[in-house]
Design brief:
Number of strands: 12
Number of helices: 18
Structural class: mainly alpha
Helix content: 40-55%
Radius of gyration: 22 Å
Largest sheet: 2 strands, antiparallel
Strand order of the largest sheet: 1-3
């Protein structure tokens, strides 16, 4: 799929919207027929729903999750797989990666669809049209941000001057898109910021958490500024989200059931990609790699309802088990038979089968989930990290302890400067550990490490040991400066556009 994939008609978008199974591929040289041009607010609303629908593609959701989560140390692959996800996990990247190719192609499809609305709606349009334009600006920003995370180096490296990804603006001709070059990481981040700021300005409706709104834009702004090490703005936009009153942390049993309940009106979720019961992708879901079991949540053998080849790592499991009453233990389901933990026997040493259920059992369906891209807990952690880096120790620890208390921890389990000193931890290290505990399996960990100039270290069973000799060596260490922390630009795209330079 070439860079700027476009749609022929609103009919196709409506088909995708209603069925979520009508997939067709288009050359960027194809153009929108005159009769398919946007003419009114109803057309724009239909096109915008189509933009959201494109997020639901396996090429975006599933491939993107593999690329963003599997390079981290919260997961362990229990056996080698013929799926390209193994290379993402082991850092054995190739320039023909199926998941990288899928993610790149689908991302630019989403941007091309959003651009159609952005170009059509003038800045003096009605409030309804401006809301829709703002939503498409948000989607364009979000997609570019995730692209540059996957294919561009962390912003602090080289102060953003490393190669990023092509920026696909509205109004470009097919000839112009066919020869786009890779903008720098800094240029992409600045483009994302401009889109988010404009989106927040235009949006005035408080929509459900599967649509963009002003606070959704603020939340992503907070994360982007944190990644840029602009701590003041990260705090500013985190405060705008927290103080908006639109969101609150789930508590107790509600928190334990966070990822199983319907996302509708979930007061902690800021933005998710909503999947309904008829959109369960079964063995092609994100969950199929994490879990295999019944509708009661009981784990069963591999292949029953999912492949179940990716587990919570022993490193992560041991950390969350430090406090057995930590409610975050609810998101791990050890596979037990007759009370005994089961192990994947296909490697030496064997891998403990700690099933992850953050993408399972939504509304009682085994493989159904609505992946969460932004939630309030992350915003508190963004603010905590920015405060720690700004020297505001008390404020950082207050946010960390808010989440620890929500997880059921009390007394000595809460963080203080005194017990951190005793443990030999800095305040920033405490924040990073809390991000690890709270946001595991949500696509953050590798980026948290590398943007903070920390290595990714594995010291637990998994296929990463196959990178080493002998295979019984279970350790793996990837430095933040390693070329492998980013994926190759898909070779198919370079073959079509020689202006795209490859990552080292």
């Amino acid at each position: 799929m070439k860079l700027a994939s476009l749609y022929r008609s609103i009919t196709l978008i409506a088909c995708f919207t209603l069925l979520f199974s009508c997939e067709k591929y288009y050359d960027p040289t194809e153009y929108i027929d005159e009769e398919a041009a946007l003419t009114n607010e109803a057309d724009v609303a239909t096109a915008t729903i189509g933009s959201y629908a494109l997020l639901k593609s396996e090429a975006y959701i599933r491939s993107g999750h593999f690329l963003m989560e599997y390079p981290g140390d919260a997961v362990a692959q229990g056996q080698s797989s013929g799926d390209d996800l193994t290379r993402a996990y082991r850092y054995n990247h190739i320039n023909t990666s199926g998941h990288a190719t899928n993610f790149w192609s689908q991302s630019y499809k989403i941007v091309a669809a959003a651009n159609k609305v952005i170009e059509f709606v003038p800045d003096d349009a009605s409030a309804g049209l401006l809301q829709l334009k703002g939503e498409n600006l948000y989607l364009r920003a979000m997609v570019h941000f995730y692209l540059v995370r996957v294919f561009g180096r962390p912003y602090p490296q080289g102060k953003g001057e490393n190669m990023g990804v092509p920026i696909l603006r509205e109004g470009l001709t097919d000839e112009e898109t066919a020869v786009l070059t890779r903008s720098s990481v800094k240029e992409v981040y600045n483009f994302v910021l401009a889109d988010l700021l404009k989106a927040a300005e235009l949006m005035s409706e408080d929509k459900s958490n599967s649509f963009a709104s002003k606070e959704v834009a603020y939340a992503l702004l907070s994360r982007v500024y944190l990644y840029m090490e602009d701590n003041a703005n990260a705090i500013k936009y985190a405060n705008l989200v927290i103080n908006s009153g639109r969101y609150s942390l789930l508590e107790g049993s509600e928190y334990q059931g966070f990822f199983k309940s319907s996302p509708d009106n979930n007061r902690e979720t800021i933005f998710c990609i909503r999947h309904t019961k008829v959109e369960d992708r079964g063995m092609s879901s994100i969950n199929s790699m994490y879990f295999s079991g019944d509708v009661a949540g009981n784990p069963l053998g591999q292949g029953v309802s999912g492949w179940a080849e990716i587990y919570a790592s022993k490193k992560y499991y041991d950390l969350v088990q430090t406090y057995p009453n930590d409610l975050r233990n609810s998101f791990i389901t050890p596979y037990l038979l007759d009370g005994k933990l089961q192990y994947n026997q296909k490697l030496t040493p064997v891998t403990p089968m700690y099933y992850v259920n953050k993408y399972a059992l939504q509304e009682g369906q085994i493989n159904l989930s609505s992946p969460i891209f932004l939630r309030l807990a992350e915003i508190y952690l963004i603010r905590a990290e920015a405060q720690a880096k700004s020297g505001n120790t008390a404020a950082a620890l207050a946010d960390v302890n808010l989440l620890r208390q929500r997880a059921g921890l009390t007394g000595a389990a809460l963080r203080t400067t005194s017990n951190l000193q005793t443990a030999g931890m800095s305040v920033l290290e405490a924040v990073m550990e809390e991000r690890y505990l709270e946001l595991a399996f949500e696509g953050h960990r590798a980026y948290d490490l590398f943007r903070n100039n920390m290595p990714m270290e594995r010291n637990y069973p998994g296929t990463h040991s196959l990178n080493n000799t002998p295979t019984t060596n279970i350790t793996q260490k990837v430095l933040p400066t390693d070329p492998r922390v980013v994926f190759y630009v898909p070779q198919a795209e370079i073959n079509r556009n020689s202006n795209l330079k490859q990552n080292p």
